Amino acid sequence: MSQATQLSKWFHCIQPNPQAVMRLFCFHFAGGGASAFHQWSKELPDSIEVVAIQLPGREGRLFEPPFTSLAPLLTALVDELRPHLGEKPFAFFGHSMGAIVSFEVAQYLKQHDQVEPQYLFVSGYPGPHTYTNDDPYYTKSDEDLIKDLVKLGGTPQELLENEELMRLVLPTVRADFEVCDTYEYNAGVLLDCPIFAFGGWQDEMLSESGMQAWGELTRAEFAWQMFEGDHFYLLEQNNRTALLTTILNTVRTGR
């Protein structure tokens, strides 16, 4: 990874590798951060350089105001990404909110820069043109929002039980949910890169038709795969190993 990328607060690359044949940009879920992908750098081979996106309002950027809508987030993120997209072939992976963001970034780059990721891997979110939420998370009270976090899973119990820390992180969680809850899909250009969709069978957000709908957003190959588990199925070791194996095999075989 270039020195400029290493120094940018928008990117975390735990194991820089100039010899990698592909760079995998990873987009975190609502309330999450780049640390969600630290283990990926250790479990994927040197041929793939993992670069985790770090949005403001969390971890090392905790005291920066988070985005509350997609449009300004997209503009800022694309500006940061552009200088690094010609260095080597790249792919996107996004989970939940990250699936929306990575898809919108891919579509924006195709439409405005005539460049696309070689692969778009999306997880924990149905085809964005099919999903609506009639009970927005971001408008709920702190108490109800915390109950929803417990139901969704993925939030460490020690964090949920720490009132001081929850007061610190909850505004970012709420802002992230506002990005998702106010997101409206606008039909744009179809992607020419393959899309691969993943999810947990017990995730209440997902259905077979919702997952298959991702295939309507690309002219290229589409496939989907489900795992035992809920919305955060990928945090379970066996699921993560299987997921990374699928990503690696896809990159190696070119399909």
How far apart, in Å, are the first and last alpha carbons?
25 Å
- State the secondary-structure class: alpha/beta
Given the structure, what is the number of helices?
9
Q: What form results from the Cα inertia axes?
A: globular
Helix percentage range: 25-40%
Helix-strand topology string? HEEHEHEHEHHHEHEH
How would a crystallographer describe the biggest sheet? 7 strands, mixed
How many structural domains are formed by the residues?
Answer: 1
* Percent range for β-strand residues: 5-15%
Q: How many strands appear in the DSSP assignment?
A: 7
Uncertain runs: none
The CATH architecture: 3-Layer(aba) Sandwich
Give a written overview of the molecule:
Belongs to the thioesterase family. Pfam families: Thioesterase. Residues 23-247 form the Thioesterase domain. This is Thioesterase domain-containing protein. The chain has 255 residues and is α/β, with parallel strands linked by helices. It has one domain (3-132, 187-247): 3-Layer(aba) Sandwich (Rossmann fold), CATH 3.40.50. 38% of the residues lie in helices and 14% in strands. It is built from nine helices and seven strands. The chain has helices at 3-7, 38-43, 70-81, 97-113, 142-152, 157-160, 163-181, 208-212, 237-253, and strands spanning 11-12, 22-27, 48-53, 90-95, 120-123, 195-200, 222-227. The protein has a seven-stranded mixed sheet with strand order 1-3-2-4-5-6-7, sandwiched between helices. Strand 6 (195-200), helix 8 and strand 7 form a beta-alpha-beta unit. Helix 3 packs across helix 4 (97-113).
